[in-house]
Automatic annotation (TrEMBL):
<feature type="domain" description="Laminin G">
    <location>
        <begin position="739"/>
        <end position="904"/>
    </location>
</feature>
<feature type="domain" description="F5/8 type C">
    <location>
        <begin position="28"/>
        <end position="174"/>
    </location>
</feature>
<dbReference type="InterPro" id="IPR001791">
    <property type="entry name" value="Laminin_G"/>
</dbReference>
<keyword id="KW-0472">Membrane</keyword>
<dbReference type="GO" id="GO:0016020">
    <property type="term" value="C:membrane"/>
</dbReference>
<keyword id="KW-0812">Transmembrane</keyword>
<dbReference type="Pfam" id="PF00754">
    <property type="entry name" value="F5_F8_type_C"/>
</dbReference>
<feature type="domain" description="EGF-like">
    <location>
        <begin position="905"/>
        <end position="943"/>
    </location>
</feature>
<dbReference type="InterPro" id="IPR002181">
    <property type="entry name" value="Fibrinogen_a/b/g_C_dom"/>
</dbReference>
<dbReference type="InterPro" id="IPR050372">
    <property type="entry name" value="Neurexin-related_CASP"/>
</dbReference>
<protein>
    <submittedName>
        <fullName>Contactin associated protein like 3</fullName>
    </submittedName>
</protein>
<keyword id="KW-1133">Transmembrane helix</keyword>
<dbReference type="Pfam" id="PF02210">
    <property type="entry name" value="Laminin_G_2"/>
</dbReference>
<feature type="region of interest" description="Disordered">
    <location>
        <begin position="1205"/>
        <end position="1238"/>
    </location>
</feature>
<feature type="compositionally biased region" description="Polar residues">
    <location>
        <begin position="1219"/>
        <end position="1231"/>
    </location>
</feature>
<keyword id="KW-1015">Disulfide bond</keyword>
<keyword id="KW-0245">EGF-like domain</keyword>
């Protein structure tokens, strides 16, 4: 394969568009046959001399009045030589004068050489032309496109049934003149420009070529800035390459591939046309358009030279081909007499679209064999005999066993096969029994043993001692015995041709069935029809998945391949994040050499997937930011914009508004909000200040997304500086997943067009109901049907009939399905089996008959939620109904259907369990969210621990409420404060990791000198200190769990109800009972100060006191209730695996620009989550203190201790700890200020 300007051996006919236009518009309908000499006419045969082809001229009566062949059949023809290449525009026919002989249909063939004919087709039809209805009328047929040729051949197809073939002919056209150049494979014709032309809007190069070679370079054109186009012929197709810079072996970027079978030695028309930035390539009648081709100069060449052997005449090599049109085609040739010497050679060339076909066969009489040269699976094979491998290929193979005393030989496929020899004693007798294929069902182990599966297949030519077994006698039970045989036939079937395996699945087969290997295809099922992956991030979230990379298959079982996409699950939304090749803030330096900066963005998703995601999302957005210093953006409303961007589906459209503004406004966000630096402009950057500023915002109109390219114009002035950022495409919401309808009457239903799933049908949906039965879906045909219904409160039935009789697939569930919760149903039917899956219960499968009917033929409307008979209707909700990956719009149809309402609320009953760690499920119109406000955790499901690393020099104080002041209106206090004031109970939980002992974990106190302290004492044990009244002694409760300061993560849960306290450390429970012990004087203040001065060095995570999460409030929601002393940053030290509590923080900034601190680091997937990917910017957590509420409590019982493991029984008095965030006493005093100190 040769690129560049090296040419292949072919003939090129060059002409300009102007000359071509002149030819097509001038009159070209002159009669051509009447003036031709007799030597210009030839025919396949003639009835007599007076019926010869020379008399076949319209309206002439010489001879017998026209041409008639000796035999009237479809192998006859009449040929006319026009003497030179001519433009032919029409053909006229007439019957033979004074006879009943005329044609009713014919074919036209054209050639330049009298060989290598090409059939003329009108609009790619079969090419038959209508003829005459009598012998006198002239019927003219004008060609839709003129044909340029020298020879014309007419082939009769049909004629008057009461006569024979008779013809007089006329051809209309005009002289055709063109320049030609002939290339020998190492020559070229080079045009050079003496003066570079200026930029032109339209440029055209057109040419015609013909060749017998299938590869080589036709054209190489160079333009400005080292841009070039190369037109290459590869394997009979034309490929157009674009390249910038030094040529490389790869040939540049492939723009388009067009045409096929262009190496047929016929003329093919090629036109290369540039219209502004659009580039059109036309090959014969096919045109392909490519966009964004810049700087290519194609025309205005005014000097040329030749390299190598270029001749300006058309060499016409003769190449005669033969076409085998159908299964009856053959060609018989005699052999050569010289072959008797034993030396022979046969060679041929062929081309075909078929994978299978016989090319050549001949017998070997002396060897009683046959030679076959044939195609099998598009591979050329020569078979004389087969080798002894791959014997399960469906072909006949021979096996011979020869026994000679103690010698055994086995031969597979005779001489060319495998032969093995061994010495084995073989005590065969005249009474020995031979079993072929298997053993009888009732026989002793002495007669027949079969450790393998029985043989399934065909056998023939069974011989014993070279005597053929008479199988007909076996069939008549005159010889031997048999069972379950079909004699006198071979019933082998190729079940992989054609293959029913989809999406690249590999087909293999056994005797009775086929199998599809779906490995690495991304699809599953018997025919690799159903996608392994979900169709959106929303679906993944509602299966309990957290943020991460997931394969998304937007069209399910459709043709679009799955692609890896990042899903960011936040507390309130599920974001689909699609990256492109440059999401970083990119700086643009001023350059006087260029007026504009171009940026093109290639997305990680394919176009079909990109368009589908945007279309089915509720909202999409993309950040568009421009940071500038003396670099204008849009200028004024009246002037031309300096910069613009291209966005939207396909190639996109040009847009001149900026992020945060409205489409078509020619403004930035500041102009829309009337806050620009210069009120006379609509963008900050248009003020043209010598200081850094920016215009940033979100593009939110889905029909303009994604951003595909960006052009920045004001960058050439001295001192101009700019930077831009086009963020990833982010979308949330899945309108398909939440598309639902509510059926409130048994007689109501929705109807849709007929479902077409002839060979493969997959149906999936979600439903919820309180009814015990109802039809979800039904579609009928004349005999065929398909139906899915809830037959009982615990059974779903998938029924269908494809002509083999009704078949039911049933799934029985262990739990009721009419519990008003969402349940999923997925049914699939293909040529191999039918399957039904309900929720996560084991699926049910029914195999299809091996040789039954396979096409599902339906013709009525598709009914959803009911049937045509209005019986057994469904009551409840159906959601996300998809048929073969296409979502039906239930809501749109429900809006106009009585008895059906669009939408279906109530999702927390199904998805509420996904909210963890006291997270609260919140209903939304489309789905749900987890409210983590009263949880110590965060994330989409309140599953992410909030952790901090501590040093002894840092504290955080959480003030529950201010001290009571009589002048202040207490009713103004938030209601949640009262809900957390409790006189009877508290619920405390936290996790920690430390190597310090002693160490203070948690301290709670009040202005009444009440407190609770949780610490690790000097014995490395957990110690809880209660002081519930200022006049009572401190009560010390110690857990027997030791070795807590080991650097590992430990979890502590403290629950108190009245006087009973439970302390759980990891999996160990300890129960305590508080007592009444009073003291005269309180000296605990000094002790308290000593404890709080201990501080804490290590990690705390998931700190919660009743409904308050002080650590989470300090990190995520700092306000007046939180006082932080020292640096405080979030950490992942609360994870179960040890991590460094103080990783380095990395930041990136641009001088004078406003950077979004919420954006992640360079080269990471961006999202709203704090943690993404491997490298994380982590903040340092140090000692935290928190204020919590404690209320006075009078203890009247003595202290008791009972230590038990988690699985042990509850305390003897049966106390349980059903704590909630609600107050036990709504009338708690409000003058008592409490503090948490951690």
């Amino acid at each position: 394969k040769k690129k560049g300007v090296q040419e292949i051996k072919k003939t090129l006919l060059l002409f300009s568009a102007k000359i071509q236009s002149t030819f097509y518009h001038k009159v070209c309908d002159r009669p051509l046959v009447s003036s031709l000499p007799p030597s210009s006419f030839r025919s396949s045969s003639q009835l007599s001399i007076s019926h010869g082809p020379v008399f076949a001229k319209v309206n002439r009566r010489e001879g017998a009045g026209g041409w008639s062949p000796l035999i009237s059949d479809r192998y006859q023809w009449l040929e006319v030589d026009l003497g030179r290449r001519t433009q032919i525009t029409a053909v006229a026919t007439q019957g033979r004068y004074g006879s009943s002989d005329w044609l009713t249909a014919y074919l036209l063939m054209f050639s330049d050489t009298g060989h290598n004919w090409r059939q003329h087709r009108q609009e790619d039809s079969l090419g038959a032309f209508p003829g005459n209805s009598n012998a006198d009328t002239v019927v003219q047929y004008k060609l839709e496109q003129p044909v340029i040729a020298r020879y014309l051949r007419l082939i009769p197809l049909d004629w008057n049934p009461t006569g024979r073939i008779g013809l007089r002919l006329e051809i209309y056209g005009c002289r055709y003149t063109s320049d030609v150049a002939n290339f020998d494979g190492s020559s070229s014709l080079v045009y050079r420009l003496s003066v570079r032309p200026s930029w032109m809007t339209t440029e055209i190069i057109s040419l015609k070529f013909k060749t017998l070679k299938n590869s080589g370079t036709l054209l190489h054109a160079e333009g400005l800035r080292d841009h070039s186009l190369t037109l290459v012929l590869e394997k009979g197709k034309l490929l157009l390459y674009h390249q910038q810079g030094v040529s490389s072996p790869s040939g540049g970027q492939l723009l388009v591939s067009l045409g096929s079978l262009l190496d047929d030695q016929h003329w093919h028309h090629v036109k290369l046309e540039r219209l502004s930035t659009h580039l059109n390539l036309t090959v014969d009648k096919n045109t392909h358009t490519h966009l964004r081709i810049m700087y290519i100069i194609l025309l205005d060449y005014n000097f040329y030279s030749t390299n190598g052997n270029v001749t300006f005449s058309c060499a016409e090599p003769v190449s005669v081909a033969v076409t085998f049109t159908d299964s009856h085609s053959f060609l018989q040739l005699p052999s050569l007499t010289s072959w008797s010497s034993g030396v022979a050679a046969v060679a041929l060339q062929f081309r075909t679209w078929n994978k299978v076909g016989l090319l050549l066969t001949f017998d070997l009489p002396q060897q009683d064999g046959t030679v076959l040269l044939y195609l099998s699976e598009a591979r050329l094979r020569l078979q004389i005999s087969k080798a002894g491998s791959g014997l399960n290929d469906g072909q006949w193979h021979s096996v011979e066993l020869n026994f000679r005393q103690d010698h055994l030989s086995i031969t597979v496929d005779k001489d060319e096969g495998a032969t093995a020899h061994t010495i084995i004693p073989l005590p065969l007798t005249a009474h020995s029994q031979l079993f072929f294929g298997g053993c009888p069902a009732q026989t002793s182990s002495q007669d027949c043993r079969n450790p393998f599966k029985a043989f399934q297949g065909c056998m023939r030519r069974l011989t014993l001692d070279d005597q053929t077994v008479d199988l007909i006698s076996v069939q008549q039970r005159l010889l031997g015995n048999y069972s379950h045989l079909q004699i006198d036939m071979c019933g082998i079937v190729d079940r992989c041709s054609p293959s029913h395996c989809e999406h690249g699945g590999r087909c293999t087969q056994s005797w009775s069935t086929f199998h599809c290997n779906c490995s690495n295809s991304g699809y599953r099922g018997a025919t690799c029809h159903s996608s392994t992956y979900e169709q959106s991030c929303e679906v993944y979230k509602h299966k309990g998945n957290t943020s991460g990379h997931y394969y998304i298959d937007v069209d399910g079982s459709g043709p679009v391949k799955p692609q890896l996409i990042y899903c960011n699950m936040t507390e309130d939304r599920t974001w689909t994040v699609i990256q492109h090749n440059n999401t970083e803030l990119t700086r643009v330096q001023s350059s006087p050499e260029r007026n504009q900066h171009f940026a093109h963005f290639d997305y990680s998703s394919e176009e079909e997937q990109l368009v589908t995601i945007i279309g089915q999302s509720e909202h999409c957005e993309q950040e568009l930011s421009y940071h500038c210093r003396k670099s204008r953006l849009l200028n004024t409303l009246e002037g031309s914009p300096f910069s613009w961007w291209v966005g939207g589906p396909g190639s996109g459209q040009v847009h001149t508004y900026w992020g945060g503004a409205l489409p078509g406004s020619r403004q930035c966000a500041c102009g829309l909000e009337d806050r620009c630096l210069d009120p006379s402009h609509y963008c900050n950057c248009d003020a043209d200040y010598d200081q850094w500023t920016d215009d940033s915002g979100l593009l939110t109109h889905k029909d303009t997304l994604p951003v595909r390219s960006l052009v920045l114009g004001d960058i050439q002035r001295p001192g101009s500086e700019a930077a831009y950022r086009v963020g990833p495409l982010r979308c949330h919401g899945d309108e398909n997943f939440w598309n639902a309808a509510f059926f409130d009457k048994e007689t109501s239903y929705l109807h849709f067009p007929t479902f077409h799933g002839e060979l493969n049908a997959d149906i999936s949906f979600l439903f919820k109901t309180t009814s015990s039965s109802g039809v979800f879906l039904e579609n009928l045909g004349i005999k065929d049907f398909i139906r899915i219904e809830l037959s009982s409160s615990s059974e779903v039935v998938f029924s269908f009939d494809v002509g083999n009789g009704p078949l039911d697939v049933r799934v029985q569930t262990d739990l009721p399905l009419n519990d008003n919760r969402w349940h999923s149903v997925r049914a699939e039917r293909n040529v191999k089996e039918a399957s039904l899956r309900v929720d996560d219960f084991p699926p049910a499968t029914q195999e299809a008959p091996a040789d039954g009917l396979i096409h599902l033929q339906l013709n009525s409307q598709l009914f959803i939620g009911g049937t045509a008979s209005r019986q057994k209707g469904f009551l409840g909700c159906i959601r996300s109904l998809q048929l073969n990956g296409i979502t039906l719009d239930l809501e749109e149809r429900a809006m106009i259907t009585p008895g059906v309402r669009p939408g279906c609320p109530g999702h927390c009953s199904s998805y509420g369990l996904l909210c963890q760690n006291q997270g609260r499920c919140v209903e939304k119109a489309n789905g749900f969210s987890c409210d983590c406000g009263q949880s110590a955790f965060s994330g989409a499901f309140c599953h992410e621990e909030v952790s901090a690393s501590f040093k002894s020099t840092t504290s955080v104080t959480y003030i529950l409420k201010e001290r009571y002041e009589p002048s202040r209106n207490s009713s103004a206090l938030p209601s949640f404060i009262y809900s957390d004031i409790t006189l009877r109970a508290e619920n405390v939980s936290l996790s920690f990791r430390t190597s310090q002992t002693p160490a203070l974990l948690l301290h709670v106190n009040s202005f009444y000198r009440e407190y609770l302290t949780l610490l690790i004492n000097k014995h490395d044990e957990l110690e809880l200190r209660y002081k519930l009244h200022s006049s009572r002694d401190v009560e010390v409760l110690s857990s027997t769990v030791g070795t807590l300061a080991d650097g590992r993560l430990h979890t502590v849960t403290i629950r108190r109800l009245a006087d009973t306290v439970s302390v759980q450390v990891n999996t160990h429970n300890t129960y305590f009972t508080l007592c009444h012990t009073y003291q005269e004087s309180d000296g605990s203040d000094a002790e308290l100060a000593g404890l709080t001065s201990l501080g804490f060095t290590g990690c705390l995570s998931g700190v919660r006191f009743n409904s308050i999460s002080p650590l989470k409030a300090a990190l995520h929601h700092p306000d007046s209730s939180v006082i932080v002393t020292g640096p405080l940053v979030q950490s992942s030290c609360g994870s179960s695996s040890p991590v460094s509590p103080y990783p380095a923080e990395t930041t990136h900034s641009l001088s004078g620009t406003r950077m979004d601190p919420g954006q992640p680091l360079v080269n990471t997937i961006r999202s709203d989550s704090a943690l993404i990917g491997g490298v994380i910017a982590v903040v340092i957590f140090v000692t935290v203190s928190a204020l919590v509420i404690m209320a006075r409590f009078i203890c009247s019982r003595k202290e008791t201790y009972r230590n038990q493991e988690v699985k042990a029984a509850q305390p003897e008095d049966g106390h349980e700890f059903p704590f909630s965030s609600q107050a036990d006493s709504p009338s708690a005093p409000n003058e008592n200020q409490k503090e948490y100190f951690i």
